[in-house]
Amino acid sequence: MAARIFIDGEAGTTGLQIRERLAVRRDIELISLDDARRKDPSARRDALHAADVAILCLPDDAAREAAALAAGGGTKLIDASTAHRTAEGWVFGFPEFRPGQREAVVGADRVSNPGCYSTGAIAILAPLVAAGLVPADFPVTINAVSGYSGGGKALIQRYEAEGQDGYKPDPYWSYGLTLAHKHVPEIARWAGLAHPPIFQPAVARYAQGMLVSVPLALWALPGTPSQRTFTPSWPSDTQAPASFGWRRSARPRG
C-alpha cells in the first residue's frame, strides 16, 4: 500500500519542489487540495488526518496552526518552517550532526527540518563544541552567502524578472544586520553554544548553493586542533557534511 503524503503549502517555492520530487515515485500517493480549498482550515484538517506523513511548507504561524489541526490524527509531520526547530516534542531533522540522531529522526512523529544556513553552521560547530575544542561560551562569528532562490518568490522575482518592477539583481548584498536572523536560535541550541553567535548572511547573484564559514582564532582556543588530532565522528553511512581547514592565525599584539 502506497504511503499517503500531504504537502500543506504545495503552491509555494519549497512545496512545489518537494511535490516535483515525490510525484515521480510509485510508492507514494499524494493528497492535494485545489486552490479554492488549500487555505480552508477544515479541508486542511481532513487532508492532514488522511495522510500518513504531512510536510508543512508554510510560514511559521501557519505551520503552528497545521500542527494543531493535525493533533490526534496519528499523522507524522515534517515541518520545513522555523516554527518548531527548538520546540519541545520535535526532533531536529539533521541525522548526521551527532550519534543517535538518525535513529531519533526515523522514530519521530514530529520532525523539524533544519534551516539552510544552520545546517552548515551546526555541521561545523557541533563536533568542535562536543569535542571541547571550541568552548560553549566562545564568541562565535558565522559568515555565509546563499543563492537567491532560498528567499522565495519575492527574491526570485527580484533577480529574474527583468524589465518588471522590483528587478534588482545585485551581485552581492548583506542582510540580517540586526543580528536577529531566524536561524540563530537553532544554531545556538543544536551546536551547543551558550550564547547566540554573530551571524552575517548575504545573498549573491546565483540561484542555488551556499557557503558557510566559521573563522576561529586558534590562539584564543584552549587547545590547538589539527586535522591529525581531530576527526569528526560522522555516521559510517554518510559523507561528512563539512570540511575543516586549520590555519594558524597570528595573535594580536598589545
What does the model show?
With 254 residues, the chain is α/β, with parallel strands linked by helices. It is built from 7 helices and 10 strands. The protein has helices spanning 13-22, 41-50, 60-70, 101-106, 116-130, 152-160, 184-191, and strands at residues 3-8, 28-31, 53-56, 76-79, 91-92, 110-112, 141-146, 172-174, 198-204, 210-213. It has a 6-stranded parallel beta sheet with strand order 2-1-3-4-6-5, with helices on both faces. The model has no long low-confidence stretch (mean pLDDT 89).
Residue stretches low in confidence (pLDDT < 50, at least 5 long) are none
Which structural class best describes the helix and strand composition? alpha/beta
**Strand fraction:** 15-25%
N-to-C series of helices and strands: EHEHEHEEHEHEHEHEE
Labels describing this entry:
6-stranded parallel β-sheet; Dihydrodipicolinate Reductase, domain 2; 254 residues; 27% helix; Rossmann fold; 4-stranded mixed β-sheet; 7 helices; alpha/beta
Q: What is the compact description of this entry?
A:
With about 250 residues, the chain is of the alpha/beta class.
